[in-house]
Amino acid sequence: MQSVQKKLAGPGSDHYSDSDESNWEEDDEVGDVVTSPSGLRYNIRHLSPTTQKVVRGAFNDQEPPKIYLESCGIKEEGTSGDSAHFYAFQMHEVVPCSVRIGARESTRWSLPQCRCPEARYRRKRPCKHLVWLFDSISKKALPTLGPGSELTMTELGYPEELGDPFRCISEYRLDVLADSLHSDVITRNGDAVPMSTARISEAREMVAALAGVETRDIATFRPDLDSSFSRNDLIHRGDLEATMFSLILASQSLADSIRTQLVSSDLAVDPFRAIQRRATRIISELDTYSLSLQSPAVASKRRAEGKEAEGPRNVSWAAVQIRSCVAHVDQLVSRGSRPLAGPERASAARTLVGILKAVASHNLDSHGGGTADDRNLYMCLVGNQDTGFVYSVLDKLVDQSQFVEELELIMELIGQYGAPESYVANLRRLITRMRSHTGEDSRRPSVTFSTESAPRSATPPLEGVPPVGPRPESVSERVSGGLSGSGNVHFLTPDIPASASRSGSRGGRSPRGGRGRGADTASLGPSGAQPSGVGSKRSTSGNSQDRGKGQKRPR
């Protein structure tokens, strides 16, 4: 595994390990703990000798298996409308192989099964394909694991900490997970779902990195590429960039090979950028679900894509997933194996500000189910109670003062909608602390917030600016609770959290105060559109434009 680790520089790659490289030398090939290419560590001492051999073979440092996830979909066990569902993953090695993961109540797929020759004819369970697939899923579904954390491998090829794999995928939602795993999604009829905007954006950023485009110019690089891709016409004569773009989208193996050769400063492998894409997708799915409640055509399309089998993508589900995104950023910022460089800190702050802006802009009451506050993403995450949402993590990035102006605009939205007094006060302190990091901003007058238009009781002005105070519950703690299912074999419906009390003061409206420098736009629109202004300004905390200067990793 050391050879795999050495060729992957920094947290940008999917195979990046949060473990300290110096600890890799301590992993004995015959020890009880093995490390996967993704960096997760598994304790296998309790496994049978046969299963231990399979796990070691899947993570072998001499010949890592060349496995790629090609597509995934939701299938039905039978032909009747009330048949149980299972997830199907199509992977490719030398020849394609298929994995089936069903609910525990399933009659055929209650235990994860692979259709490769080793599993079918030699009865080897788990096979290396199951081990590889569950390692990839665990890397995405368990984002708050600290460096060096040990997972307990089971005889079925997945860690105990993952829980029920079917339930885990259902709560994450398959197509959202597919985006994170760079996979296509297919319908029940075997038709490919249109390419996701996340995969298209990533492919364009990979081409831009290969073309040597500066990070600040990627947002405007070749917008025509998005419409040029066709599965039946991959070659564009006279246009090498469009050809490469098409080939990356058509071939997971090519895309993975290029991805592992990029350096951590490349936007395409920026982990914070990936989290931002996931948050965009979650809010987009929430909007589409809301629209399906009003439009039979949209509802029919969702059923054809298998989305209804996993449960509603309502505000309750979206709130849990958004908190998970914030917790993932927190883990990378505060519990990584090394301090983040300046450009990485800027990217982390941009993602957090973008998520907060998207939530504050999504103050809608039309998302069905529960009370008015339960139907409102803003109220679930900000308006009902102060849980430190976003600002508690941004407090660790106060040097990123280029986002002060964006935060002040968000304060205006919070002033319109109302928020707990402590939330407004802590966010206000954070803005003041960020401004103090530059001489120019620190000379500007303090921001004051008018309370005349506040829809709820006004927040009194602060006398001083102490550090951000403690919050009653960390983001990671809120995410770790998970969701409980409905008991239905066909899908797992998230529980709707009880509405929090509305007692206590709410924040008032805040006119824009002093302008922060740089003004990087952190737009993360609920429509799922490409975030605007990414990389539009250079961060003063590090030169994010010196891409490609690091040593390239060998394949």
Structural write-up:
Helices cover about 35% and strands about 5% of the residues. It is of the alpha/beta class and about 550 residues long. It has 3 domains: about 1-185, no CATH class; about 195-260, no CATH class; about 270-480, no CATH class. A hairpin with a 5-residue loop joins strand 1 and strand 2 (about 40-45).
Write the layout of secondary structure elements.
Blueprint: H1 2-6, E1 33-35, E2 41-43, H2 49-58, E3 68-76, E4 85-92, E5 96-102, E6 113-114, H3 117-120, H4 128-141, E7 150-152, H5 165-172, H6 174-180, E8 184-186, H7 197-210, H8 225-228, H9 240-250, H10 252-261, H11 271-292, H12 296-304, H13 315-334, H14 342-360, H15 377-383, H16 391-394, H17 404-417, H18 421-435, H19 439-442, H20 475-480
Parallel strand pairs: 2-7, 3-8
Antiparallel strand pairs: 1-2, 3-4, 4-5, 5-6
Helix pairs in contact: 2-4, 7-9, 9-10, 11-12, 11-13, 11-14, 13-14, 14-17, 17-18
Mean pLDDT, as a whole number?
74
Radius of gyration over alpha carbons?
24 Å
Structural class: alpha/beta
Strand order of the largest sheet: 6-5-4-3-8
Distance separating the two termini: 13 Å
Number of helices: 20
Helix/strand order, N-terminal first? HEEHEEEEHHEHHEHHHHHHHHHHHHHH
Give the tally of structural domains. 3
**Helix amount, in percent?**
25-40%
Percent strand equals 5-15%
* Major sheet attributes: 5 strands, mixed
Uncertain runs = 1-29, 365-373, 440-555
Secondary structure: number of strands: 8
Shape category: globular
